[in-house]
Amino acid sequence: MMQVFDQAPEGIQKAPHDPRILAAGYQVSLREISFSDVHDKESLMLAVLRGLALTNSFGRNWDALYDVLTDAEVRPPRLGLLLCDFEHFRRRHPRLSGELERVMLDAQRDAAGHGRQLWLLAEELESDPKSW
């Protein structure tokens, strides 16, 4: 069976089952960004800051995000971003998610142009039993 890491990254893809275990097996460095609490650009940038373990010097704007995703000095050559609760975020904030996607896809193309790989993997959270 083909796995997402068998192929070059292409757009935002559905996260595989057990992405952390799979990424480890393929020597892909996986970072998780949770969109559960994102409601505006500031909370989005905070989620990115936490997910990528950035310092507070991170500029918290689209250019800064592009720069950190494409920085060969800092980012491993095989990087996966696990975008948790991404579909809900996309439905709640179509404009904000559109801007984010544009930056991530540009970074993905830049990485590919430099022989690097950046997977963008959308993972949906399971329904929270507490919310039943």
From TrEMBL:
Domain (Barstar (barnase inhibitor)): residue spans on this chain: 30-121
SUPFAM superfamilies linked: Barstar-related
Any matching Pfam family: Barstar
Family stated for the protein in its record: Belongs to the barstar family.
The protein's name: Barstar (barnase inhibitor) domain-containing protein
